[in-house]
Amino acid sequence: MLKCRKMSSGNSSESVSFVLAAYGNVGAFKYPYFIIILFWYVSICVANAVLIVVIHVDRRLHEPMYILLSNLCVNEINASTSLYPLLLSQMFSDSHEVTLPWCFLQMCCMYTTASAEFCSLAAMAYDRYISICHPLRYNVIMNTERVFMLILVVWMYSFLSFIFSFSFIFRLMFCGNIVNNVYCDHKLIIRLSCSVSVHSFISDIFFVLLSIFIPFSLISVSYMKILAVCRKTSTENKQKAVTTCTPQIVSVSNLFVGCIFHSTDFSLLAAHVPGEVNIILSIYLLICQPMLTPFMYGFNLPKIRQSRTMLLFKRKSISLFSKRVL
């Protein structure tokens, strides 16, 4: 099962593929696992796609806040696609091998979308700050052109933060290939390198600084200023601010819970926590966050709720009219 190639500089060998060892315990449960994972992945894609379609179809929702929300939903689909297709394909694999290029591609997609998640929420928090604290200048500052430029900056920044943080992995030589997880976890992959480097510690700090700390600082400043303004406004304006800001606060809180689970080394607790629980906690962010976003925004924001209802009843009325004509 171990695929290696000889290095010209010694007797060590460099792995050219990784074996995802966590699938070895699936056994007879692979069929129910496959159905559950496929159902959840399709549900995530459909839920986020419905929200994107509702925003696209209803011209009243062609506002900066909802355009940024559409971008967030696109990111949820991208993040899910970085994990679930691999899970599905590995369920019926005998070797559970993933080649180096595919492993690096998955890491790139997962960490770019993770960074984009925080940055998108930071952009949405800035939009709410301008809307609530500077309402008269809102249409000037947050015009459509600037919103799309902001989205472009979010994606470029997220991709570059991954490249700057983890590009050193591409140059590592690996002397092992057993990854005790269901996906290409960069921490486990770095441990398989032939030489332990200080870069691994620095890269984690660098990625946390660029992708989590800076966006979270912008989010915190935005909401602190929103809170300061809301204390001086009417009850009605406070209620509007709470309605629009609550989904973002819940999303940020859930992201931090997921980051704690992801960064915790559960191998130290292997004797007390079942292996299945360890795996679920390590991918908690990609299980809950992609489904939390469409439901939090789709059911909490009044305009989206109204547009979804109108679109649904409009389609039903067209269908009934067609049947009567026929």
From TrEMBL:
Coiled coil: none annotated. It is a multi-pass membrane protein. GO terms for cellular component: plasma membrane. It is found in: Cell membrane. The keyword DNA-binding does not apply. Keywords: Cell membrane, Disulfide bond, G-protein coupled receptor, Glycoprotein, Membrane, Olfaction, Receptor, Sensory transduction, Transducer, Transmembrane, Transmembrane helix. GO terms for molecular function: G protein-coupled receptor activity; odorant binding; olfactory receptor activity. The chain crosses the membrane at residues 33-54, 147-170, 205-228, 249-273, 279-299. Residues 47-297 form the G-protein coupled receptors family 1 profile domain. Belongs to the G-protein coupled receptor 1 family. This is Olfactory receptor. It comes from Astatotilapia calliptera.
